[in-house]
Every structure is written in structure tokens, then in C-alpha cells.
Amino acid sequence: MYKYLLWDIDGTVLDFLASETYAIRYLFKKHNFGECSDQIIKTYSKINIKYWQMLEKGELTKQEILVGRFREFFELIGIDTTIAEQFNKEYQTALGDCIVFIENAKEILLSQKGKYILAAVTNGTKVAQEKKLRCSGLDEIFDAVFISETVGAEKPNRAFFDYVFEKLGVTDKSEVLIIGDSLTGDMKGGHLSGIDTCWFNPEHKLNTLDFSVTYEIDCLEKIRDIVSE
């Protein structure tokens, strides 16, 4: 029986693509960059995913990926790359201005509150995540929040999870389950730290890792049966 549920935020509880689209379009308008088409959003999103995966693999630091993604993006679409650092700062704040929950996520978390120890585990920036949690009301639902910048390590590093276990007082790892959409961050991190994993995979992507996840779900409602087993 699980006692601790570790929930990823972006792409699992909150619709990150909705926040991303809003923030990019808002800042394009603010800086008079011209029309921000769906294709431009897709171009940025692809670059962004690539950079976050490099962070999870330990190939780049957090600051390198935050600014580097915008430098590459702006260079590709013909915008002066010197604005990348300032744009990133404004982007972090703008992300929290658009809150869209993944279907049934909030209802599920509310139903779990008091029955399990709920912890948010995220690699997102402190500025963006604290605003999202506050504006969404998630800060009142989670019993604990672990943001990698504060922890001093990123998922999937064991140091991140060891910190979480220590702060939560975990003594039996069989009582812990991580729920997330990222194979390289959430699932690999759970595997390396010796806890069960639940991969939220609504797009039915292939598992490209060299190990199996404990559970795989395509809608969050299925988590109810898993944690009640």
C-alpha cells in the first residue's frame, strides 16, 4: 500500500503546453516580434524539450538550458539573440499567468488529500513553479513541494530523491510512488532511487529506456485503482 505519492507538475498535473503557448504569444506581442503562429510555437516547443532532456542527462546546467533554448530559437526564426536572457526572465513569470489542469488532475489530488502524503516534485524554475502552485491552489493541496533549484539537484539524480525521502521521513521505499510524464526525469529518477513508477503517457509514446516502468497510464483516472490496490 502506498503512503507517499510524488507528483510531477508540468505535463502531469498542469497542462504545460497551454502555459507555454500563452507565455510565448504574450511576450511576442509585448516585444513586437510579429505574429506568433502555431508553427512558431511548435518550433520552440521542440527546442525546449530537447534542452530539458539535456538537463536531465546532466549535459547542461539549469541556466544553460533556460537561456540556451531561447538563443537557438531566436537564431532560427531571425530574432536578435541578445534578448534571450531577458526574455527568459519574463517568460518564467508569464508561465504562471495561464493555469490549465490536466483532465481530472485537481479532483484526483483533492480526493487523495488526507489519505496519502502528497508531494510535488519538479525541475521547473522556482519563480515559475511557486507562482503556478499559488495561482492554481495546488500549494494548499500538496503536503510538501520540492523544486530542484531549492533542493540543489535535478530529477533524475538520486540526490534529488534522497533529499525528498529525508524530508518526508520515508523509511520504506515500497510505500512511495512517483507519477509523471517524463521518462528521462520522473521514471528514470524513480527507477534509480528504488521506488515504484507510474508513467502518465496519454500520447502512447514508446518506452525508450532500458528498464520497464511499474505502471503506465493514458489518463489520470487510472491512478485511483493503482494506489488503492
CATH homologous superfamily annotation of the largest domain: HAD superfamily/HAD-like
- Note the gap between the termini: 7 Å
The biggest sheet, with number of strands, parallel, antiparallel or mixed sense and barrel status, is:
6 strands, parallel
Instruction: Give the count of structural domains.
Output: 2
CATH C-level category of the largest domain: Alpha Beta
Number of helices: 10
Strand-helix topology:
Blueprint: E1 4-7, H1 16-30, H2 38-56, H3 62-77, H4 84-95, H5 105-112, E2 117-122, H6 126-136, E3 144-147, H7 148-151, H8 158-168, E4 176-180, H9 183-193, E5 196-200, E6 215-217, H10 223-227
Parallel strand pairs: 1-2, 1-4, 2-3, 4-5, 5-6
Helix pairs in contact: 1-4, 2-3, 3-4, 4-6
Structural features, described:
It is a single chain. The chain has 229 residues and is of the alpha/beta class. It folds into two domains: 4-15 and 100-227, HAD superfamily/HAD-like (Rossmann fold); 16-95, Orthogonal Bundle (DNA polymerase, domain 1). It is built from ten helices and six strands. The model has no long low-confidence stretch (mean pLDDT 96).
Features:
229 residues, alpha/beta, Rossmann fold, DNA polymerase, domain 1, 2 domains, six-stranded parallel sheet, 6 strands, globular
Short overview:
The protein has helices at 16-30, 38-56, 62-77, 84-95, 105-112, 126-136, 148-151, 158-168, 183-193, 223-227; strands spanning 4-7, 117-122, 144-147, 176-180, 196-200, 215-217.
